[in-house]
Amino acid sequence: xxxxxxxxxxxxxxxxxxxxxxxxxGLNESPSGQEILVAHTNARYEPYDLVSRLxxxxxxxxxxSAFWNEMQVSMKNQLFATATETTEGLIHDSADYEGQYFSxxxxxxxxxxQPLKYDKSVGLFGGSTxxxxxxEDSHTVSSHLQRxxxxxxxxxxxxxxxxAGAGAIERCRKIRHVVxxxxxxxxxxxxxxxxxxxxxxxxxxxxxxxKLSIRIAKLWRSLELVTLKxxxxxxxxHAAAAAKHTLEEIIATYELCKRNGVRFTAVLQxxxxxxQDLCPYENAVVKVFGARHxxxxxxxxxxxxxxxxxxVVRAEDGFDNTVPSVFLDWAHVESRGNKCLANILLKIIV
Length: 350
What we know:
The protein is an alpha/beta fold. It has helices at about 5-25, 50, 65-75, 130, 140-150, 170-180, 200-205, 210-220, 225-260, 280-290, 290-305, 335-350; strands at about 80-85, 90-95, 95-100, 105, 110, 120-125, 155-160, 185-190, 265-270, 310-315. Helix 8 (about 210-220) packs across helix 9 (about 225-260).
């Protein structure tokens, strides 16, 4: 058999494998008419017509068309955050915007029901799940927490330092920058986890060889079987490294706050991958965001869960037993979900 014949046989075998792979992939898709409506990206980018039909958007979700339209206008009119260069690196603050339902003033997302006079401050730091793009001012985590503190600590003010897209390392930088503005009776709480699993800089950290292999595999789908193992190994290692680096920064920030007499608590946040007993809608959301994303989140969370630090509160089960679902996408929730988080934070403060 000549070399050319062997080559043609190999090409034919690959073509048959490609056909088989594509047919098999199609068989795994939902039957026509049984698809479940989900957001295919962060829900805040989706039109209200779609969002209003998600299972999580009920009469108690705190989401309505006037707010949603205003929120999306705010995203077009601001660059999410302003950046300040420091010797440690960039520090971000949410860009100011004043609307009827949605506002950020002096870099802080508006918290409603704040007392006029106060003798204690609670600073909430985190990414978009603290900033709460998806709910109006009165339904954010900080606003829920402010109302929950009304009876037990009426002279406590809650401040929302959340920044959409921010990771814990950058938020630790911000905490170190403002810790002197807190007193010894104050609390600083950092919600971490979702943005601290390596997925935000996954592509940038990948080797050129692996990037090229993935590009080729997208054109010839059967080759995904070849690249899958290498990509999977890189994803797990990258997620674990991100978690370890994040923990180092959190520990350093805790030690600084302790020296300043400010109580610091880091809360490992819940998301759709840490929830028990997913409903069909939530399983559909997981499928949309893909196996690699789930693998990276869970790989990093395995590192976070293995730590026994007194100042870290594990709250991965925070959205268990929520019916109907609180998820707008894999990480962002509506008002009922924000109240679940506020109740977790209340136990830390009181």
